[in-house]
Amino acid sequence: MLIGEIISVAIGALRANKLRSLLTMLGIVIGVGAVIAVVALGTGAQQAVKDRIAALGTTLLTVNPGQQRGMGVAIAGAVQKLTIEDAKAIDERAPNVVAVQPEMRSSQQVVFGNKNTNTQIIGTSPNYLEVRKYTLAAGRMFTAADDEGAQRVAVLGSAVVDNMGISTPEALIGENIRIRGAQFTVIGVMASKGSANAFQNPDDEVLIPINTARFRVNGQDRLASISILAASEDAIPDAMADIDRVLRRQHRIRQGAPDDFQIRNQADFLNTAQETTQVMTYLLSGIAAVSLLVGGIGIMNIMLVSVTERTREIGIRKALGATRWNILLQFLIEAVVLCVLGGVLGIALGAGGAAIMSKTAGWNTQVSPTAIVMAFAFSGFVGIAFGVWPARRAAVLDPIVALRYE
User: Fold this and answer.
1) Strands 153-156 and 182-190: what pairing?
2) Distance between CA atoms of 386 and 138, rounded to whole angstroms?
3) Residue 196 in domain
């Protein structure tokens, strides 16, 4: 029996039981589709982090409060604080620093007319746009005088404008919004930063002067973070050393005692984010790959049933001269075709699911060619691995016994 004829007979057997073949390959379809979609989501998240960090610039440093330690162990709940005085000290005493931008953050309801949205309220300094690499779509940024006078003025992110149903940013300039019951005048709208992901949208924020946040919104001087621009990439180590020296003096930390703050550069954030997304992608891919295993077991089960049902047919083929190799190859091809077709449908399902998530949920997804090739190859491997036993069982049947089978 020629190879072409063997393949034709195998495909004909599958076509004769279309519904059973479709249900048999369902586990492979779901498994491959889930792997493709999960990897696309993880790859998209990594790319979004890279784009976000590239947009912020490579010389940006971030200082966050650390945990207080006792006997070398972090004390639960004892988070040290950063204050506005710390930011001022860095600005005055760190020679390798060109800009310091403190931040107070809180999640608040913003009301405009009969519309409202929950967003991040950021109390910050007038140099926020410079440090964070934002631009204005309309209006102006608040000034140092606005900050000193704790004026109730606000600059909105583009997502906030969209959430309020306003089509043109200029329409909000001069209008009043309410934050925590206090009235603020909108003086500017930022252009879209983009690079949104499933966890954070950089356009969904409202900027107000830090003294306004301190006295009128938050009622305290604790900072969420301090963003700092180093003079250049080469000056980053010196800038980090300057910041460490200034803050240790500010916090009166004894020599040899650990820092109660953290200084991180963009490379640290990128590595941490990539490691996190990679671990989650591997974990979810492993869970999805279980479906491939289940699908393979289902295919082996159905192929064993098929061998039993076609015992008499196998006997006739052997009586007409088919060898064990011919019978083995026929049933093995049936199993591989089921898995490969399931892999093709799964790739289409996974790529389509990734596209739907991107459009409906706004998540960054990026279908990986490597993931497609690996999923397709693995589905073929499953067909061979789980098709060998049923095919071998068919091949070793005694033709006399097979012809007598009812």
Assistant:
1) parallel
2) 63
3) yes
Q: pLDDT tens for residues 288-298?
A: 777 777 778 88
Q: Which residues contact 118 (CB under 8 A, 6 or more apart)?
A: 107, 108, 109, 110
**Are residues 206 and 146 both part of a single domain?**
yes
Q: Are residues 233 and 320 in the same domain?
A: no
Q: What percent of the chain has pLDDT over 90?
A: 28
Q: Are residues 129 and 198 in the same domain?
A: yes
Judgement on whether residues 31 and 101 belong to the same structural domain of the protein: no
Q: Tens digit of pLDDT for each residue in 31-60?
A: 888 888 888 887 787 777 767 666 666 788
Residues 356-379: pLDDT tens digits?
888 887 677 888 788 788 877 877
Q: Find the domain containing 348 and state its range.
A: 3-51+272-404
Strand partners, 279: none
- Rounded mean pLDDT, 67-75: 49
Model pTM score: 0.58
